[in-house]
Amino acid sequence: MIIWMYIGMFPTIQEEAESFNELIKNYPESFMKAFGMDEQITFDKIENFLSIEHFSLVWPIMMIFFMIALATFGLATEIEKGTAEIMLSRPVSRVEIFLARYLAGIIILLIFTLVSVYSLIPLAELHDIDYVLTNYNTMAMLGLLFGWAVFSMAMMFSAIFSEKGRVYMVGGMTIVGMYIANLAASLLEKVENLKYISFFHYYDYQAALVENHINELSIYVFVGVAVVCTSIGLIWFNKRDIAV
Known about the structure:
Blueprint: H1 2-15, H2 17-25, H3 29-34, H4 46-53, H5 58-74, H6 76-81, H7 84-89, H8 94-118, H9 120-126, H10 133-160, H11 164-187, H12 199-202, H13 205-209, H14 216-239
Helix pairs in contact: 1-4, 5-8, 5-10, 5-11, 8-10, 8-14, 10-11, 10-14
């Protein structure tokens, strides 16, 4: 429904593009940096509009909440409820259990990303709005990488903790900390290096959706985080004591 609202609004926004462009030019530089907005961004194309209105904050928040909840349900919830006994009594190893839950989460991540990104296409067609398909392919790839890193980190926490509340708390605090670090880095030059510890620095939605480009460093960081966190989670879950 949110996507449909954005698409429905865009023809009106496009007609007033010049006015909105002038408005953006008058925004304080600190405001533009805080929200990761390019001063050259315009509202004459649907990709520009959606990058600001949807993929800047709304979409990553949905992805983060969904991936943390999915990872928490996969392991920590089972242990907290005491149903892990059933899970562990099956003739399969803990490694197989972890990987099965992990792969199920990756499949759901893939479905969520494809639906949430490409659902814009038929709606744009319905409202006779021009769009660039290749840009959405790039945005979907960046979204998958971002979601994969968040999910892998959450699965690691889910393997470590026995209560779902702790997974939500630690996972949420980590993401919030990353957001604050990226925000501080964009506003204060003396701490600008903090941006490198934040997922949000590498989640360059404007480059993906507007410029059809993903920075190589973003790929390396997201893949690296996913691999490291998955490995830690797998090893921890395989060796930890679970009271059943």
